[in-house]
Amino acid sequence: xxxxxxxxxxxxxxxxxxxxxxxxxxxxxxxxxxxxxxxxxxxxxxxxxxxxxxxxxxxxxxxxxxxxxxxxxxxxxxxxxxxxxxxxxxxxxxxxxxxxxxxxxxxxxxxxxxxxxxxxxxxxxxxxxxxxxxxxxxxxxxxxxxxxxxxxxxxxxxxxxxxxxxxxxxxxxxxxxxxxxxxxxxxxxxxxxxxxxxxxxxxxxxxxx
Length: 209
Fold this sequence. Notes:
Layout: E1 34-40, E2 50-53, E3 59-66, E4 73-78, E5 83-88, E6 98-102, E7 111-117, E8 126-131, E9 142-147, E10 152-157, E11 163-168, E12 178-183, H1 189-208
Antiparallel strand pairs: 1-2, 1-12, 2-3, 3-4, 4-5, 5-6, 6-7, 7-8, 8-9, 9-10, 10-11, 11-12
């Protein structure tokens, strides 16, 4: 499990929920802040991939892409290369919603959550996240706001101002392919990594347009 670090981080809001919020798995819910280092296109020849480590350089997650497909699949793996979730989107989709399934499943009985733009006309300023149990989608369970290119995105609990994860810019001069994400206590950090995979995939889609 990832360990806390001394890296400067935001102070959690006073109304933050202290109960664990497992989405992909309870083993990914730490009682401490977790700092994740994202390394884009490093240590891997997989398409559309990156590696996620803790601050000590231990690999926690990696991503393999299946870009030559009708669904633009990506698979999030743990540090032992076990598939955690499959992320997929149909090419023909007005709102470009991304569906996340447990393991390598594509069956909706294994559906965990869905991510889509708050508005079809906006330029990816806000993404809404709906857990599988939220079938009506009258409200979002999480919301992502910010600028992906600037690595300045924040994940909020629902439509509130409660921060659950926050990106930081590159770690130092010359680290253009690396940035850090701080995940707040008791939030599933594998889930947060899956959201980052989707943000990266959306950016790749824009490059292809």
